[in-house]
Amino acid sequence: KVVAVIMVGGPTKGTRFRPLSLNVPKPLFPLAGQPMVHHPISACKRIPNLAQIYLIGFYEEREFTLYVSSISNELKIPVRYLREDKPHGSAGGLYNFRDLIMEESPSHIFLLNCDVCSSFPLPEMLDAHRRYGGIGTILVSKVSAESASEFGELVADQTTNELLHYTEKPETFVSDRINCGVYIFTPDIFTAIQDVSSNRRDRANLRRVSSFEALQSATKTFPSDFVRLDQDILSPLAGKKQLYTYETLDFWEQIKTPGMSLKCSALYLAQFRHTSPHLLANGDGTKSPTISGDVYIHPSAKVHPTAKIGPNVSISANARIGAGVRLISCIILDDVEIKENAIVIHSIVGWKSSIGRWSRVQARLFCFFTFLSHANSSNKLEENLGNILEIAKKSYS
Ligand code: GDD
């Protein structure tokens, strides 16, 4: 049996994703009309003998209850949310629930970061991992040398694919091959995490008896139950014939900033052409708007037949799109109203906003509109634009 674990973090993580994560936990923000975490979950469905999917995070339980039960029903796989009482780090979080995860006696455990956008070639990784025979295999992608320092950089043996060297977000360039945040492990990973945790505890105890100065420095280190997968596990295990790499040539992006959500929405919409064509609007029928390229429209949204939508547009629940509206490359969130003949290009229109008739909303890079309900009354508009600029400054600083 195989189980999959998706690390979803918590409210104190993902702050660069604000303001989009102010209303809804980042893992539930819609990309291509589906919550961000839906994409890795549905990729897990392709894993042979998958017994269970766990989401581990430190968000309030109630924020995930509804989603978890609806996705379990939809995909017919048990999905459970496990809540940490505090952040334990990407490996510590996994270790914290080891007993539950091992209940099914899985031979393999997939571990996925929730904030990556990928085609998630999981069955292919499992095959490769079985051939390599180590305790873990990491999904790897090639990125530009300039952007590599935002990720874990690694060097692998070109013949055996063994991980030889790993450095997390190094200041000087190491490699353009990076860690995609998608892994498969045997249950031995728990022993590796436990070793880090007990070493840390022993060192802290040793320092405590040796000198006051050392005690001070010990308090600056992490608690023994906080273990990071990258620095604490991958770096020390590199070059020991325990970890291997599987390189993907397919799309891969990290979703840390609001601007990336538009790009990732486009990537997932394009993927729907092959994986879920029924989710894409086809513009058939006399009452349908004109559709160009990949577009998702929630069944409860009302789009006027004279509107022209796409490419790369996703329209969420209960949105109302008026006559003559033109939407290009945007995410329209729940309960938005876009009035007649407005044009929205390269933007995210936030929950319950209203865009007045004949407006033009266009960003060169990325634009986020929210709190704009009743935007037609101009004093409210000014006040709200002030709010938006404040939030924008914070989220880009
Ligand atoms: N449950 C839980 N608890 N989840 C956590 C915790 C925690 O304490 N800490 C982090 N996470 C989750 C985050 O939500 C995210 O999905 C994942 O673990 C990794 O987060 P970080 O540890 O903050 O690392 P990162 O996203 O900056 O970088 C990692 O991912 C990159 C790929 O996206 C590193 O592994 C990089 O090497 C890698 O390139």
Can you walk through the features of this model?
- Helix 6 (189-210) packs antiparallel against helix 7.
- This protein has a 7-stranded mixed β-sheet, sandwiched between helices.
- It contains 10 helices and 24 strands.
- It is α/β, with parallel strands linked by helices.
- A hairpin with a 6-residue loop joins strand 9 and strand 10 (163-168).
- The two termini are 45 Å apart.
- It binds guanosine-5'-diphosphate-alpha-D-mannose.
- Guanosine-5'-diphosphate-alpha-D-mannose (GDD) binds at residues 7-9, 13, 56-58, 84, 87-90, 93, 113-116, 151-152, 168, 178-181, 230, 254.
Mean pLDDT: 89
Helix content: 25-40%
Strand order of the largest sheet: 5-4-1-6-11-8-12
Ligands present: guanosine-5'-diphosphate-alpha-D-mannose
Radius of gyration: 23 Å
Q: How would you describe the shape?
A: elongated
Query: Unreliable runs, pLDDT <50, ≥5 residues?
Result: 371-383
Largest sheet: 7 strands, mixed
- How much strand content do the residues show? 25-35%
How many helices? The count is 10
Q: What structural class results from the helix and strand content?
A: alpha/beta
Distance between the termini: 45 Å
| Quantity of strands, as a count | 24
